[in-house]
TrEMBL record:
Source organism of this protein record: Paenibacillus filicis
Family of this protein: Belongs to the bacterial solute-binding protein 1 family.
Stretches assigned to coiled coil: none
Listed name of the protein: Extracellular solute-binding protein
Taxonomy, superkingdom: Bacteria
């Protein structure tokens, strides 16, 4: 780097001498004739975004071209795309050992509090993109009144359903558990598997946790999370969460432990089941298999109170700038380009993500608009903050529960203990 800087300075001095001797000032281009470009390698850790690698790599190439033209900086990328199953643990290890990427992905609701307390997140409040964030989005990527991440996936989700199957059988998304049982019965009577089960990756059965807990703490058990954070509560208090889990597990496809997210997307796209407890973040994967498929998003019923059937509103995958990043200025340029007023419309559409910027002008997809109809009626909640360790453990525990290696009581004890351990760990920070 020192050699590069020395060379750059020398070339600049030489350029000034030539300009003066000719009597013509060098107006130059946008990089002011700076000579050899500065070379920067950005390290990017994009966990859980592996299915979008082509879109991101193409967009990063656009950024590199822009940065070269405007700032005479030649940017290359050292990009990693680990899968959702183990990316969080890999990232924690990297950060703890000092192998810090410039930009890394994290789950806004789950991860921002812990990563912020650990000092890993740079303050991005003064960056141009921060002023563009939609009002409902900005608080979810902020802490202590600081914007600390750029939102990629803003999601409104519950479960996915196959619209053709529902329409052919005259079915509508149920609003209560009893109605869901009737839907399941009609599907079974017509030899259609009600639910797709894809439990090979533990993060998928983990999705039951935010859906059930979120609905209950926003209706009948509003003090559950506060009590758990004070070591005064138990999952036994919301044991009814197992009612919908049991219904799904008893009416699902075979080979649950052989099917992961990619295979699940393919099976759902091919009509192997009518419903899938999964989010619209899989839209791209589903439509790559069957671009004619029509699917909807509906709230998952958990009991017989229709007011408890709520859409989960969250910001999941977000991008953060490491507080100890080696190339902060260029990394900041990249984050701002990700919400560029023009280019980002194409990026977010290609990813099939929701708009997050006030300047996004693209039309949302049909499943996004369907989920929004529930949110517009007030049938939604902002995803509850549950310790990451509890979410991770719930996925493993619910795998074991499906496999009959753990009972309900075992799962409750396991999750209670994990939450208490998480409280103890947080108190030491």
């Amino acid at each position: 780097m020192k050699k590069a800087l020395t060379t750059t300075v020398a070339l600049m001095m030489l350029g000034s001498t030539i300009a003066c001797s000719s009597g013509t000032p060098d107006k130059g281009s946008s990089n002011n004739g700076a000579g050899a470009p500065q070379k920067v390698e950005l390290k990017l850790f994009l966990g859980g975004l592996d299915r979008f690698r082509d879109q991101f790599d193409k967009y990063f190439a656009q950024f590199a071209e822009k940065e070269k033209k405007e700032k005479n900086i030649e940017v290359t990328f050292n990009s990693e795309y680990p899968g959702s199953e183990n990316s969080a643990q890999i990232l924690k290890t990297r950060l703890a050992t000092g192998d810090v990427p410039d930009i890394f992905s994290l789950h806004a609701v789950n991860d921002i509090p812990d990563y912020y307390r650990a000092g890993y997140l740079a303050d991005l409040s003064s960056q141009p993109f921060a002023a563009k964030l939609q009002e409902g989005i900005k608080p979810i990527v902020s802490i202590d009144n600081k914007v600390v991440a750029l939102p990629m996936e803003s999601v409104q989700w519950g479960y996915l359903y196959n619209k053709k199957i529902f329409n052919d059988l005259g079915l509508k998304p149920p609003t209560t558990l009893t109605e869901m049982k009737a839907v399941v019965q009609k599907l079974n009577d017509n030899k259609v598997k009600p639910f797709l089960l894809s439990y090979k990756e533990s993060w998928i059965p983990q999705l039951f946790l935010p859906l059930t807990v979120g609905s209950l703490v926003n209706t009948s058990h509003k003090d559950f999370i506060d009590k758990m954070n004070k070591n005064e509560g138990s999952f036994a208090d919301i044991k009814e969460m197992f009612d919908i889990i049991d219904l799904v597990n008893a009416n699902g496809t075979d080979r649950a432990f052989e099917i992961g997210n990619d295979d699940g997307s393919a099976d759902f796209a091919n009509g192997k089941a009518a419903m899938w407890v999964q989010g619209p973040w899989n839209a791209d994967s589903i439509l790559k298999v069957n671009d004619k498929m029509e699917f909807g998003v509906a709230p998952l019923p958990i009991n017989d109170d229709p007011k408890s059937s709520l859409i989960n509103v969250s910001v999941s995958t977000s991008l953060a700038l490491a507080s100890s990043a080696k190339n902060k200025e260029v990394a900041q340029d990249l984050l701002n380009f990700i919400l560029d007023d023009q280019a980002s419309n194409d990026l977010y559409q290609s990813l099939k993500f929701n708009p997050v910027s006030k300047n996004h002008t693209f039309k949302p997809y049909p499943w996004v608009e369907e989920a929004a109809t529930y949110a517009n009626k007030g049938l939604f909640y902002k995803e509850s903050t549950i310790p990451t360790a509890v979410k991770d453990e719930s996925g493993k525990a619910l795998q074991a529960y499906y496999n009959k290696k753990l009972s309900k009581e075992d799962v409750i004890k396991d999750l209670d203990k994990t939450w208490k351990d998480a409280n103890a760990a947080a108190s030491k920070k």
